[in-house]
Design goal:
It contains seven helices and 15 strands. The protein is of the alpha/beta class and 249 residues long. It folds into two domains: 2-141, Response regulator (Rossmann fold, 3-Layer(aba) Sandwich), CATH 3.40.50; 158-248, OB fold (Dihydrolipoamide Acetyltransferase, E2P), CATH 2.40.50. Strands 2-1-3-4-5 form a five-stranded parallel sheet, with helices on both faces. A five-stranded antiparallel sheet has the order 10-9-8-12-11, covered by helices on one side. A three-stranded antiparallel sheet has the order 13-14-15, with no helix packed on it. The longest helix is centred in the middle third of the chain and has 25 residues, at 117-141. It is elongated, with a radius of gyration of 23 Å. This is Response regulator transcription factor.
Length: 249
């Protein structure tokens, strides 16, 4: 999931941005949650501090009244704490744009409030769309997590929770992902997953196993036993390769 935040000290503007973003997320069916809309930078940073593994989208006003920390400082702290963060500045101060480059914040966009509500709304929607696309690419590229897509939503599972993946008998084009908390079924292809995730081993035409979750290999039954007690078949031609892979792990 992509977690979104708004930092804006004008309560009316804050509610407008909140409504626009939430409506667009709902209409497009995106796996994004607007976690917070606030005028307090410290509250926002505290939430980020508690969830450093999250992927974030931040809409930040640069100048926050009655505060000793501004949007630029918030952006710098976010950059230092999160591996993935898309940052959009929404401000009246166009002359401060150069500071974002000087501080190497690398924002996705710089929206000027004086451009009018229609233009702001368009820019906000465009930035949500681009951020979500980048988020999806980032998730798919990460081997620390196993990711899959159902409809327009991208889900991710920590790789250390994944046990094995199997084809669904009698249902071509469907696979089952078995993990420590249960199982999920969705349209997929083992060949594509084998090519994408080098840490998963194709022990059989119908199974991909996470070698880190293999408890032992039963040579008599020619099956691998996973940590939860479940088993997967091993084809004859993959037996020796599997033995070597288990020795190396």
């Amino acid at each position: 999931m992509l977690h979104a935040y708004i930092l804006e000290d004008d309560s009316k503007q804050r509610e407008i941005y909140k409504h626009l973003i939430e409506s667009y997320i709902f209409i497009e069916g995106m796996d994004i949650k607007l976690e917070l809309a606030t005028d307090d930078p410290q509250v926002l940073l505290a939430m980020v501090e508690r969830n450093k593994d999250q992927r974030g989208l931040f809409f930040l006003d640069i100048e926050i009244d009655q505060n000793n920390i501004d949007g630029l400082e918030v952006a710098e702290k976010v950059r230092n704490q999160l591996n993935f963060a898309e940052i959009v500045f929404v401000t009246s101060h166009s002359e401060m744009a150069f500071l974002t480059f000087e501080r190497k914040i690398e924002p996705l966009d710089y929206i000027i409030k004086d451009n009018g509500q229609d233009e702001i709304a368009k820019n906000l929607r465009d930035d949500v769309r681009v951020s979500y696309h980048r988020y999806q690419n980032h998730v798919f590229a990460s081997e620390q997590h196993f990711s899959y897509q159902i409809g327009s939503r991208v889900y991710e599972l920590p790789m250390n929770q994944l046990l094995y993946i199997a084809t669904v008998s009698g249902q071509p084009g469907k696979i089952e992902v078995h993990h420590m908390q249960g199982m999920v079924e969705y349209p997929g292809n083992l060949n594509e997953l084998e090519a994408k995730y080098s840490n998963l081993f194709r022990c059989h035409k119908s199974f991909l196993v996470n070698l880190e979750k293999v408890k032992c290999y039963d040579a008599k039954d020619r099956t691998v036993v996973l940590q939860d007690g479940s088993t997967c078949d091993v084809s004859f031609r993959k037996e020796n390769v599997l033995r070597k892979a288990l020795v190396k792990k």
